[in-house]
Amino acid sequence: MSEQKELSEVEHIKTASQGLRGKIGVAIETGADGFEEDDKQLIKFHGMYQQKDRDRRKDENGDFIENPTSFMIRGRIPGGRLTAEQYAVWDDLATQFGGGALRLTTRQSIQMHTILLKDLKPIMQAVYKVNLSTMGACGDVVRNVTQALNPWGTKELTQLDPVAQLISDHFKYKSTAYAELWLGETQLNKEVEDPIYGKTYLPRKFKIAVTLAGDNSVDIYTNDMGFAATLDANGKIDGYFVFAGGGLGMTHNKPETYPRAADLLGWIPEKDLISVAEGIVTSHRDFGDRTNRKHARLKYVLAEKGAEWFRSEVERRSGAKFDTDRKLPKWETPKYLGWTERADGTLALGFHTLSGRIKDFADKPLKTALRKIIDEFNLNVQVTADQDLVLMGIRKEDRPKLEAKLKEFNIDPASPKPLYDRALACPALPTCGLALTESERTFPQLLDSIQAVIDKLGLNDRAPIVRMTGCPNGCARPYSAEIGIVGQQAGGKYALFFGGNPEGTKVGDYVAKKVAFADIPVQLEKAFSVWKQDGKANESFGEFVERYSLDKFRELLGSM
Ligand code: SRM
Ligand code: SF4
């Protein structure tokens, strides 16, 4: 077989795309309601997915009707940082085109669903006007760069703003297709070379997180590449611990696919940031598997060639030398929900939103309330990797007014109980084409029933991190949670994963398979009872699982 034949289909589509153009322009011009098959792959590089509402609906005669094609759009918002004006634009677009809902994502971005093709262009233009875009938010390129949260406004954490921005800008693709197709720019060089991505881009998506060493609010080990900054005696960034090869996607019953925590490559001085980042991204470009998309992520290169080999390859490409003797500080995940005082004397409010869905619920006009507050008090916003929002720059004297406003709207920014603080669920049905089961829509009910178990056993002070997804792709990072609930089979069957810890330094593994939705709390009660009985004082569920062993849990739950 020739090498050309072995390449995956998407590789051919990228090569023939004329810089990610394909026939996207034709569909826009002719007023089509959807894109051709090949272009469905290319539009991802422009920050969108073609979807269908998967809820089956009947017409007045009781016959099933074909649900219309619609689009999901995702922003490129480095570090999840937005001004009040930028937030307002997303909010307005959601009202006008996105069914009245915004969705905060697990990579500090914003998505909108149920968009029609004809509305894509005005959306892209409105986002671009406030200096943001959707370019490369999806596709085989560097995606939204995540960044440690900074409700405190410290100068140490603020230094990460230009770092995340620099990395994001450096790895933006060079094709002018985006400007031409969506922004209507015509004086463009169509033949522009892309020194990093070439004509075939990366073999697969690539995710990057930046933080301060010790602060794991970004779940750094789940990223393809991570930089954890260290500080000199004056609090200035002097270098980075560098991580590579994390990733979560897997497929049930295919053990050759698996979630993986990133390897620590070592420490580098500050000046080597971009050359090392390029060394890692181009290693993925050159060694990632372009014949099998299920095996194309950087994590498989690390797993198969080894961290030692990878370190030397990156050193060769970048000219930098990793210091492998430096000791990494202990990781923590700082609490950000509630009120915090900022270094500039203003306040921040960590605002809990379950699963990041911002809309006007029947008894709770969350979208309207957030918009009013952000506008009225002119607040900057940071979307968190846990699908929450941090509102920043609130003057101390405005706090009572802001609280009164929230009360007026019947909105409580606090999470109901510790279990809900860091709980995540992916969108799944009805928009996600890959969902096997429900996730976001049934998550509140599931959390309430797990909370009942926690209450019964008196474990509120150690409530574990629970995350749920509608398939094994891992979008709500279930494998780095203490409890991962992962859609396995249509009809509502889930696999349970234990083994992650609160600091987010490990990934877990199966402890039960094909558990019916209603049985999840029953299975968890068995596990929590052993933890309560045999766990040490204050031992987290994650630590206990490590000591007790996954095999013993598999035996206890009896559904493997
Ligand atoms: Fe994801 C595909 C939603 C974070 C791993 N992800 C999808 C798609 C686009 C489905 C599709 O391909 O048709 C989902 C759209 C659903 C919808 O209707 O909105 C989707 N992923 C999401 C979001 C919105 C989940 C959320 O609850 O917030 C997150 C958007 C992040 C962003 O702003 O960029 C999201 N996805 C993640 C993460 C977590 C992370 O990056 O921190 C992961 C695991 C980490 C990783 O990449 O390994 C993740 N998504 C996947 C995968 C599996 C990739 C793999 O290596 O196998 C897919 C499927 C694929 O790419 O083929 C996927
Ligand atoms: Fe869809 Fe699966 Fe991602 Fe959930 S985890 S959004 S079901 S791809």
UniProtKB/TrEMBL annotation:
UniProt name for this protein: NADPH-dependent assimilatory sulfite reductase hemoprotein subunit
Nitrite/sulphite reductase 4Fe-4S domain boundaries: 165-321, 466-557
Species of origin: Leptospira langatensis
Lineage top rank: taxon: Bacteria
Biological process terms in GO annotation: sulfate assimilation
GO molecular function: 4 iron, 4 sulfur cluster binding; heme binding; metal ion binding; sulfite reductase (ferredoxin) activity; sulfite reductase activity
Required co-factors: [4Fe-4S] cluster; siroheme
An annotated GO cellular component: sulfite reductase complex (NADPH)
InterPro entries: NiRdtase/SiRdtase_haem-b_fer, Nit/Sulf_reduc_fer-like_dom_sf, NO2/SO3_Rdtase_4Fe4S_dom, NO2/SO3_Rdtase_4Fe4S_prot, NO2/SO3_Rdtase_4Fe4S_sf, NO2/SO3_Rdtase_FeS/sirohaem_BS
Family: Belongs to the nitrite and sulfite reductase 4Fe-4S domain family.
One Pfam family this sequence matches: NIR_SIR
PROSITE patterns: NIR_SIR (PS00365)
Keywords from the UniProt entry: 4Fe-4S, Heme, Iron, Iron-sulfur, Metal-binding, Oxidoreductase
Nitrite/Sulfite reductase ferredoxin-like domain span: 67-127, 343-408
